[in-house]
Write a structure and sequence with these properties.
Strand order of the largest sheet: 1-2-8-5-3
Number of strands: 12
CATH superfamily of the largest domain: Cytochrome P450
Number of domains: 2
Order of helices and strands: HHEEHEHHHEHHHHHHHHHEEEEHHEEEE
Oligomer: single chain
CATH architecture of the largest domain: Orthogonal Bundle
Strand content: 5-15%
Length: 462
């Protein structure tokens, strides 16, 4: 009851410190929530608010958010992480239920977890050890799509899931050939539902709340599975083997539960994101024969190693442009947890607002003034043959993997997965986008930003 009264008190509070987001469906109780009901239009609405007002506030029942649209303010928030500015409490609460790891950890635990997790990803030598497993799965991927019309979004999700299983701890989930990974995919579905819920029902209703959506049973099954994996230990050349090796050298070693939580983080943060990025890459290649032909030349000289990234500047440019326009992480929710922060000339007290960084808006509208057609998709936008790696430097507005010291440690692994998979397809097939008669594909919000419907592609053997 106390929690319910607290929510009602926040709902009844009037006034704010910042311009209010323009909303035609605002309600005294739900606030702006009704305007954001449809996942297919949610991000477009947020972008329209940012274009119309700039930095502005909104309310979802009792939760107040602040859309931060100026790069100097974003840079300030970046500099204050992780001590003063942390991940949004509600997002952290929902995510940590299924994956208590480095993604959700804050100080002082974050320092230890980051020190143990990062070495598994942060060198070309480490990533090269994972390459052969990804190549093995790319062969399965080619077998799964060869000579067929395929829903590429579902197929790429399975490829990403199988990659995490093999790279993470040597477990062959084999979903590309019919293996069952519902234990993980159901956790992703429930997590997305909880993040979207305007009321955190699983907190407001003791005991029954976290059982209303089946989350408790799924969480127990996932953790039992992953803790058993941790106790058995990981084969050589897996993320788990690296975690266990580093953990043994730590004075404050992580318990098996936290190690299992970091494996869960790999699944929940690394499947939708990488799978969706690869989906859009294939979609753009399949609808543009000239782009596909040019990319195929690069694919044939790529040796599936991070040291060879410089040989595929066009494909890397495509990877970046997908992240800019159709990236799986379109917003980044934060909060000032310990001290007041000045945003747009106004002082924000701790936990007063959730800071929401609109990543897609910044990527489209805060690029340098001389950028050509910044709101349009251009697969060749980042190619610059004069640069050492063939790519222009990323502007400060592009933050698809977060920013500052909290940048995602798996970002290079994600790019390696995408390049190996897409290059394998380019070498073997001519790809053609299937027109379903429903107009352009758009993004919609689930756990991450995903295609609003299946994207079908025909794969014809070369």
């Amino acid at each position: 009851m106390a929690r319910v009264l607290k929510v009602l008190g926040r709902v009844m509070r009037t006034g704010g410190k910042f311009p209010e987001a323009p909303c035609s469906r605002k309600n005294w109780f739900f606030g702006h929530a009704r305007e954001l009901t449809n996942p297919a239009t949610r991000l477009d609405i947020i972008d329209s608010w940012c274009e119309a007002v700039g930095t502005c506030e909104y309310r979802l029942v009792s939760r107040r958010g602040l859309l931060v649209t100026e790069l100097e303010d974003v840079a300030k928030l970046s500099a204050l992480r992780p001590r003063t500015v942390q991940r949004s409490f509600m997002i952290r609460l929902a995510f940590e239920y299924f994956a208590p790891g480095v993604f959700t950890a804050e100080l002082p635990e974050w320092t230890v977890e980051r020190r143990i997790v990062s070495p598994a990803f942060h060198s070309n030598a480490r990533l090269s050890e994972y390459g052969p497993k990804i190549v093995e799965l790319s062969e399965r991927l080619c077998q799964a799509v060869g000579g067929k019309k395929v829903a590429i979004n579902a197929t790429m999700y399975k490829f990403a899931l199988d990659s995490i299983g093999l790279i993470g701890f040597g477990q062959d989930l084999d979903t590309l050939r019919g293996g069952d990974a519902s234990m993980i995919t159901e956790c992703v579905r429930i997590l997305g539902k909880r993040i979207l819920a305007p009321l955190p029902y699983y907190r407001l209703i003791p005991f029954f709340g976290d059982r209303m959506d089946g989350g408790k049973a799924r969480q127990r099954a996932l953790f039992q599975f992953l803790q058993d994996v941790v106790r058995r230990g990981g084969p050589d050349h897996t993320v788990l083997a690296k975690l266990l090796e580093k953990n043994r050298s730590e004075n404050n070693a992580l318990a098996d539960e936290r190690l299992a939580g970091n494996l869960a983080t790999l699944f929940l943060a690394g499947t939708d994101t990488t799978g969706t990025t690869m989906t859009w890459m294939v979609k753009h290649l399949a609808e543009d024969p000239a782009l596909q032909k040019e990319a195929r030349v690069e694919a044939r000289r790529f040796a599936n190693r991070p040291d060879d990234f410089g040989t595929v500047p066009l494909l890397r440019s495509l990877f970046r442009e997908v992240l800019r326009i159709e990236g799986p992480a379109a917003v980044l929710p934060l909060q000032n947890a310990t001290e007041p922060v000045v945003i747009a000339g106004r002082t924000v007290d701790p936990r007063e607002y959730a800071f929401v960084i609109p990543l897609r808006f910044l990527g489209k509208h805060r690029l340098p003034p001389d950028e050509k057609d910044p709101t349009n998709f251009d697969a060749r936008r980042w190619v610059d043959r004069k640069e050492k790696d063939g790519l222009r430097p990323w502007p400060k507005a592009l933050m698809p993997f977060g920013f500052g010291v909290r940048t995602c440690p798996g970002k290079d692994l994600s790019e390696l997965e995408a390049l190996i998979a897409v290059c394998a397809l380019l070498r073997r097939f001519e790809m053609t986008l299937v027109d379903d008669g429903k107009g352009p594909h758009k993004t919609t919000f689930a756990f991450t930003m995903i295609p609003d419907r299946d994207i079908y592609v025909n794969f014809r053997n070369i």
